[in-house]
């Protein structure tokens, strides 16, 4: 008889069990919500997924307790958890046997063997290694189609004049009695026990069951994947979803196995249902980026999480922390912040180039920014934050995972979106009443970090541009005066 498997709330799919009928232990701990202010829809999604998992199995024991320790009264096994704190907790328990991690395509040992001794850990190299090792999008020893990388085709601005991409939206989720119960519980915790949440409640938008997740995957591959590639990096004010998959929350809850997701995408390419460039771009996100950031979380030393190479010390302003989009006039930032408030999700470019870029320009503390992303996004987990927020978005690691800071002015946002036309600011202006906060913020960021960035050859051109500015003093003064006010 197989032992009971304790499943954390991000290990809910069949690939976390040794046999389909393995007995399961689930723990719903309220303490998690007392410690941190999570987005209301994220709390709903996680609790709904846990409770639906209880309802889906024959021998599933769901224990509701204040802490995990109280619930662990019998010997169980568990797959390697996804945070250092959870792993340390599991390792302290005599009654729990820990198995290797699941829920990622590549194995930790293979990553370490690939990474050890390399001067730079670059996604592109890891991604090629992973594709070869797992035979994904390969024709023998060669990449399918003859190229590893179709990024150049996948970085187009939005189609000219379009208000939306012409792709069918993901099918809506139908809430049920379990969702009603979760909503009532959260209301009660909020009003009677003072547990706080951030963001608006709303109908559940993301899968909480394996069935819902598979339906979303099928719909994406059939209807949205064919359009995924070209406008992957573009933003449209009236189309927050574009052709993105919205599968991150389901994969991170463990409802979908990332390997089945990339296999389905590859089948779509092989059958002629989706073009290679988009399928390659999508595969790169999952087999590449997702596995890469997972391994970096464990590979980098624990204090990587507290890295602060640019010495950014400012606190998150209240309007940002509380998702007060109405306080913001900058059209791009207001819209994206409203997306976080209303859905707990925006796609990659708003995260990196609107939210992260703004935070880095203003010198907000990277640890606080990472914590904010973790709490406010339906797909946020500690392992994702380290590389994505500390490394990629805030450059707080001084360049261990990206070659230059993802800092950009209004020109980038103007090229990649339709936001600027309807904004009270002008992306070309860096000083004056209509100076775009991103453009002004970009130059003042470069001015502040000129010495640190000097040795970075990819920053030479921007720094030359900085030295040619004749209004830098006025610009810096204006940015100082803006302080932490909403733009
Ligand atoms: P798609 O564009 O459809 O991509 C497909 C899948 O690839 C995603 O579902 C996701 O599983 C995976 N993926 C793509 N990029 C990454 C990446 N950089 N890291 C990990 N997985 C990736 N992703 C999270 O899952 N959770 C987070 O909390 C998170 N926070 C982020 C914070 C910042 C500042 C940045 C720059 C990126 C963050 N990402 C995070 C990565 C990425 O933005 C999201 O995975 C993606 O936007 C989710 O939407 P989607 O499912 O439609 O993705
Ligand atoms: Fe954003 Fe600046 Fe464009 Fe306004 S002008 S939408 S603030 S980039």
Automatic annotation (TrEMBL):
Region (Disordered): 152-176
Superkingdom, taxonomy of origin: Bacteria
SUPFAM superfamilies membership: Cryptochrome/photolyase FAD-binding domain (SSF48173)
Matches recorded under Gene3D superfamilies: 1.25.40.80, Deoxyribodipyrimidine photolyase-related, DNA Cyclobutane Dipyrimidine Photolyase, subunit A, domain 3, HUPs
InterPro entries on file: Crypto/Photolyase_FAD-like_sf, PhrB-like, Rossmann-like_a/b/a_fold, UV-DNA_repair_photolyase
Pfam family membership, one: DPRP
Family matches, as PANTHER family: SLR1343 PROTEIN (PTHR38657:SF1)
Protein's name in the database: Cryptochrome/photolyase family protein
Species for this entry: Cryptosporangium japonicum
């Amino acid at each position: 008889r197989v032992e009971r498997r304790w499943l954390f709330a991000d290990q809910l799919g069949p690939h976390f069990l040794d046999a389909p009928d393995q007995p399961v232990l689930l723990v719903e701990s309220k303490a998690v919500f007392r410690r941190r202010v999570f987005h209301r829809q994220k709390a709903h999604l996680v609790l709904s997924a846990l409770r639906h998992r209880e309802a889906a199995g024959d021998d599933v024991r769901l224990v509701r307790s204040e802490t995990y320790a109280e619930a662990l009264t019998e010997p169980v096994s568990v797959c390697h958890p996804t945070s250092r704190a959870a792993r340390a907790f599991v390792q302290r328990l005599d009654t729990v046997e820990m198995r290797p991690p699941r829920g990622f395509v590549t194995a930790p040992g293979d990553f370490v063997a690939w990474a050890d001794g390399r001067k730079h850990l670059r996604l592109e190299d890891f991604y090629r290694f992973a594709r070869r090792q797992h035979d994904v999008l390969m024709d023998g020893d060669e990449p399918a189609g003859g190229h590893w990388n179709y990024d150049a085709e996948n970085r187009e601005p939005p189609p000219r004049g379009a208000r939306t991409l012409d792709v069918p939206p993901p099918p809506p989720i139908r809430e049920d009695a379990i969702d009603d119960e979760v909503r009532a519980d959260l209301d009660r915790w909020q009003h009677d026990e003072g547990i706080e949440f951030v963001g608006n409640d709303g109908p559940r938008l993301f899968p909480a069951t394996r069935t819902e997740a598979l339906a979303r995957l099928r719909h994406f591959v059939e209807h949205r994947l064919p359009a995924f590639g070209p406008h992957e990096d573009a933003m449209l004010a009236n189309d927050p979803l574009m052709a993105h998959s919205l599968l991150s929350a389901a994969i991170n809850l463990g409802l979908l196995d990332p390997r089945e997701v990339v296999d389905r995408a590859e089948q779509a390419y092989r059958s002629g249902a989706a073009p290679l460039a988009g399928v390659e771009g999508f595969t790169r996100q999952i087999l590449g980026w997702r596995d890469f950031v997972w391994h970096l979380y464990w590979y980098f030393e624990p204090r990587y999480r507290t890295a602060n190479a640019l010495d950014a010390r400012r606190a998150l302003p209240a309007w940002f922390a509380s998702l007060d989009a109405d306080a913001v006039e900058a059209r791009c930032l207001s819209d994206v912040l409203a997306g976080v408030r209303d859905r707990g999700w925006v796609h990659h470019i708003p995260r990196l180039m609107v939210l992260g870029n703004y935070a880095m320009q203003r010198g907000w503390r990277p640890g606080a920014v990472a914590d904010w992303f973790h709490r406010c996004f339906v797909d946020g987990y500690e392992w994702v934050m380290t590389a994505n927020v500390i490394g990629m978005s805030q450059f707080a690691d001084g360049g261990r995972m990206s070659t230059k800071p993802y800092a950009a002015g209004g020109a980038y946002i103007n090229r990649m979106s339709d936001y600027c036309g309807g904004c009270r600011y002008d992306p070309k202006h860096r000083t004056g009443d209509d100076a775009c906060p991103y453009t002004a913020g970009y130059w003042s960021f470069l001015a502040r970090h000129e010495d640190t960035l000097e040795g970075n050859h990819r920053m030479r051109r921007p720094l030359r541009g900085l030295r040619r500015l004749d209004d830098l003093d006025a610009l810096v003064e204006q940015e100082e005066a803006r302080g932490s006010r909403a733009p």
